[in-house]
């Protein structure tokens, strides 16, 4: 079976929402091949097929088993990853790296195999020993013994860096599984556009974290799986900065994209690693572990879905609503909010409305989806001389689950941030200085903080749910006057 055929069958067998997801109107300006490495045609397609396997008929189960086979299963893995000859392995204390001796899947040298093993060992040290995530469940004697197995194969010609596959449910657990990973066999710059060592480091960190996640809950919401796996790249290989290329597609650059958005064509889930960066900069790396503990399905774990788990953890701090609002404001000026923010894109803001004596009142209306934001800007015209000019900002928002902030960008580039206090009707107002010599622009941030869903509706959002408060209507009325 050819690789494209394998993808089609995997999608059909899984009924894979994540493999087929994404609106027809998605942005055509997609990212480059790096994102193909984490497209649902790899880790999440195999996850979906694994989830669907118990519901398949006998013939479908046979096909599914071949699709989920390990490369060392050879001809029993007709999906394209089976080695066509002898294989060997090099092992450390916790991990074994398997490789083909000859053929297209053979690595360039035994030195590369050993280098891969060293990097994977460093990843284990970082993610398990330092960040204190639970190690992947043992696979018994699959692969030869109970050590975690990683296979090298030629993936670059498919646009793939690597993937992990859940394989067997942990005994006594419904939603935890052992797994194995497959990484490219050489990560050549010609195929991947970056130094081989850099590609190896970020891919190993990302994919191994998927194996860890499968030991907590392999059915967890896809945005949480991918956003935290992309975040962990930054903690392990900070200087590589490969994940920066995702930022234009996520919630930093596109504030109107919901936090829990997952799409194969918008790629927001990868760019949303910045959300975890924002939170861990404030509360420490342990926050992500705390969220996964709330999502943990093992034993008596809480087994909360992604946004529930996030809400439970942030409830110990400022709460999800305030954190999301602060995050939206921070993304207006990443250089002020993140250690490496000078290299990040800033949030998209529409053209500021020019306000002066000839246009003293401007009203802007918009709709905002759940767990997302929208920015509205105003600027003074040159006629507004002196220090007596003021701008009165009136906000009309839904009665609940809304927030509004005002950022005054001064002429010297400094910023001041203000809260618009909304009453029970969702209305609020704030007055700020607006003289042309003092102020460059005023930005009003409107945030829909709702995380209400009808769950299990087969969407790609949290809990597979249908958001109940999308398209919420907001209005901003700006009035110019002299004090």
**Count of separate DSSP helical elements:** 15
Estimate the global geometry from the Cα principal axes: elongated
Rg value: 25 Å
What's the N-to-C terminus distance?
75 Å
The proportion of residues in beta strands is 15-25%
Low-confidence stretches: 1-9, 19-30, 32-41
Protein structure class = alpha+beta
Q: What is the percent of helical residues?
A: 25-40%
Index terms:
16 strands, 5-stranded mixed sheet, 483 residues, alpha+beta, Jelly Rolls, 31% helix, 2 domains, 22% strand
Structural overview:
- The protein is an alpha+beta fold and 483 residues long.
- The chain has two domains: 243 residues, no CATH class; 130 residues, Jelly Rolls, CATH 2.60.120.
- It contains 15 helices and 16 strands.
- The strands form four sheets. Strands 1-2-3-5-4 form a five-stranded mixed sheet. The protein has a five-stranded mixed sheet with strand order 6-8-13-10-11. The protein has a four-stranded antiparallel sheet with strand order 7-16-9-12, with no helix packed on it.
- Strand 10 and strand 11 form a beta hairpin.
- Helix 1 crosses helix 4, helix 1 crosses helix 5 and helix 8 crosses helix 9.
- The longest helix is centred in the middle third of the chain and has 22 residues.
- It is elongated and about 80 Å long.
- The N terminus is likely disordered.
């Amino acid at each position: 079976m050819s690789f494209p055929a394998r993808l089609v069958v995997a999608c059909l067998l899984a009924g894979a929402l994540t493999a087929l997801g994404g609106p027809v109107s998605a942005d055509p300006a997609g990212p480059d091949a790096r994102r193909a490495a984490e497209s649902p045609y790899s880790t999440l397609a195999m996850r979906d097929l694994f989830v669907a396997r118990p519901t398949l008929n006998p013939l479908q189960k046979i096909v599914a088993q071949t699709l989920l086979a390990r490369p060392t299963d050879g001809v029993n893995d007709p999906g394209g990853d089976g080695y066509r000859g002898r294989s060997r392995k090099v092992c450390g204390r916790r991990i074994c790296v398997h490789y083909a001796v000859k053929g297209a899947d053979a690595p360039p040298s035994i030195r590369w195999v050993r280098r891969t093993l060293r990097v994977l060992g460093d990843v284990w040290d970082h993610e398990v020993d330092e960040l204190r995530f639970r190690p992947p469940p043992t696979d018994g004697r699959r692969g030869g013994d109970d050590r975690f197995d990683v296979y090298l194969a030629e993936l670059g010609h498919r646009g793939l860096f690597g993937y992990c596959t859940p394989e067997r449910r942990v005994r006594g657990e419904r939603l935890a599984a052992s797994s194995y990973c497959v990484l490219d066999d050489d990560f050549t710059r010609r195929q991947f556009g970056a130094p081989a060592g850099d590609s190896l480091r970020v891919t190993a960190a990302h994919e191994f974290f998927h194996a860890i996640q499968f030991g907590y809950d392999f059915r967890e919401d896809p945005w949480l799986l991918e956003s935290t796996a992309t975040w962990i790249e930054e903690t392990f290989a900070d200087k590589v900065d490969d994940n920066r290329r995702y930022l234009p597609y996520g919630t930093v650059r596109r504030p109107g994209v919901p936090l829990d958005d997952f799409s194969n064509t918008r790629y927001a889930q990868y760019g949303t690693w910045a959300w975890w960066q924002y939170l861990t900069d404030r509360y420490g790396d342990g926050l992500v572990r705390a969220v996964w503990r709330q999502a943990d399905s093992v034993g008596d774990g809480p087994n909360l879905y992604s946004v529930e788990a996030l809400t439970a953890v942030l409830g110990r701090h400022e709460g999800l609503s305030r954190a999301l609002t602060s995050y939206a404001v921070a993304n207006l000026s990443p250089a002020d909010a993140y250690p490496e923010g000078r290299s990040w894109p800033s949030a998209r803001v529409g053209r500021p409305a020019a306000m002066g004596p000839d246009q003293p009142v401007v009203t802007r209306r918009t709709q905002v989806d759940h767990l997302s934001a929208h920015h509205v800007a105003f600027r003074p015209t040159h006629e507004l001389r002196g220090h007596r000019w003021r701008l009165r900002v009136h906000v009309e928002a839904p009665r609940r689950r809304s927030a509004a902030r005002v950022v005054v960008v001064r002429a010297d580039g400094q910023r001041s941030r203000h809260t618009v206090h909304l009453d029970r009707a969702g209305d609020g107002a704030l007055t700020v200085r607006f003289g042309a010599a003092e102020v460059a622009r005023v930005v009003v941030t409107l945030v829909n903080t709702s995380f209400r869903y009808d769950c299990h509706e087969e969407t790609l959002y949290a809990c597979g749910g249908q958001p109940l408060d999308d398209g919420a209507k907001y209005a901003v009325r700006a009035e110019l006057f002299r004090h």
